[in-house]
Amino acid sequence: MRDELCGNIIPFWLTHVADDEHGGFIGEMSNDLVVDRQAHKGLILSARLLWTFSALYRFEPDPRYLDLARRAYDYLDQHFWDDRFGGAFWRVDHRGRMLDDKKKIYGQAFYLYALAEYYLAAEDATALARAQELFGLIEQYSHDAAHGGYFETCNRDWTLAQDARLSDKDMNEQKSMNNHLHVLEGYTNLCRVSGDSEVRDRLTQLIDLFDRHILDRQTSHFGHFFDETWQPRSDTYTFGHDIEGSWLLCEAVEVLGDAAPTERVSATALRIADVVRTEGMDDDGGLFYEGRAGAVIDSNKEWWPQAEAVVGFLNAYQLSGRDEFLQVARDCWGFIERCIVDHTHGEWFWRVARDGTPDPGEPKVSEWKSPYHNTRACLEAIRRLRAIDKGE
């Protein structure tokens, strides 16, 4: 995994994505490395690049990583930050001019997550202050005091938006699992660096929300979309989000420490991992994309669920000592090496079909295709495997 990280993933993002003409990073690159110089630049890609290079610097203090983290930090500050109302715009054009001024909470959470990581890497107090400012804005305008949780999308002035969709393929509902999963992720990182009591309280509440509203206890799958009062509005689930959420919840209780519901969350994580293992894994080690009512309805295998599966099953092995979890993590990594890694152009394919045939039409770099999932999977797996070797 270190070879893949240091020999393929890192070199790709070090050499291909800086935009030396307009600043920041390119917005889109095809699978065969053709750059669209006019492509817009999304908050998610920029924030994930900030997180990635910051995390890499903490892993190995190469000054190139810190330079690119600082490049991402500066570009986000100069072009995405809304000086009038606070928070970050959703999208700018290739020159850095605002295109979409929505305050999508998913994006604010990723920015917060990345800022906390950058603070850990660069020890820059302004980054922590900005992360805390974002936390305050999310809590002030998106938190639902009546029913709990967070509304999906606000307008520029932080009034609730009529169109709450994160993307065109999503339902126009007030609350989603995906949004809450990444608010949880961001708040966990902010809690790690700040220890703030209000952040701790909200993180504890988020863990409880997953247990009470988002997790279907009969199936051990996360629901996708909900109305304001947490009534389910969808009947599908994605195996990647299930296994990713299983270890992110465990990370959250680890950061919270003694006051967290550790045993309950660990038991939940193991139930989720068991269901994903039995319902979502193919015989070749790959993880299917989507299911409904116990059946696979999308057998494609995207890059990010494979990355999250490796970490999630390693986490399940650490919790339980059950060898089948270690084996499925190993099998999934083997599938990644055989089918997901692009051995011609570098980095990972977005998607392969069930038979392992890659989809060359999907971009290698885009608003949604970044090094966050696969870099984090390598870093987490390396850390966890070292702990396992030490018997920890």
What report would you give on this structure?
This protein has helices spanning 2-16, 43-59, 63-80, 105-122, 125-141, 177-194, 197-214, 239-256, 262-280, 303-320, 323-340, 372-389, and strands at residues 41-42, 91-92, 98-100, 103-104, 153-154, 175-176, 215-216, 221-222, 225-226, 237-238, 290-292, 295-298, 301-302, 351-352. The protein is built from 12 helices and 14 strands. It is globular. β7 (215-216) and β8 (221-222) form a beta hairpin. Strands 1-2-3 form a 3-stranded antiparallel beta sheet. Strands 10-11-12 form a 3-stranded antiparallel beta sheet. It is mainly alpha-helical and 392 residues long. Helices cover 54% and strands 8% of the residues.
Write the layout of secondary structure elements.
Blueprint: H1 2-16, E1 41-42, H2 43-59, H3 63-80, E2 91-92, E3 98-100, E4 103-104, H4 105-122, H5 125-141, E5 153-154, E6 175-176, H6 177-194, H7 197-214, E7 215-216, E8 221-222, E9 225-226, E10 237-238, H8 239-256, H9 262-280, E11 290-292, E12 295-298, E13 301-302, H10 303-320, H11 323-340, E14 351-352, H12 372-389
Antiparallel strand pairs: 1-2, 2-3, 4-5, 6-9, 7-8, 10-11, 11-12, 13-14
Helix pairs in contact: 1-12, 2-3, 2-4, 2-12, 3-4, 4-5, 4-6, 5-6, 6-7, 6-8, 7-8, 8-9, 8-10, 9-10, 10-11, 10-12
Structural class: mainly alpha
Largest sheet: 3 strands, antiparallel
Work out the helicity level. Answer: 40-55%
Low-confidence stretches: none
Total helical elements: 12
CA radius of gyration: 20 Å
Strands side by side in the biggest sheet: 1-2-3
Ends distance: 20 Å
- Coarse morphology: globular
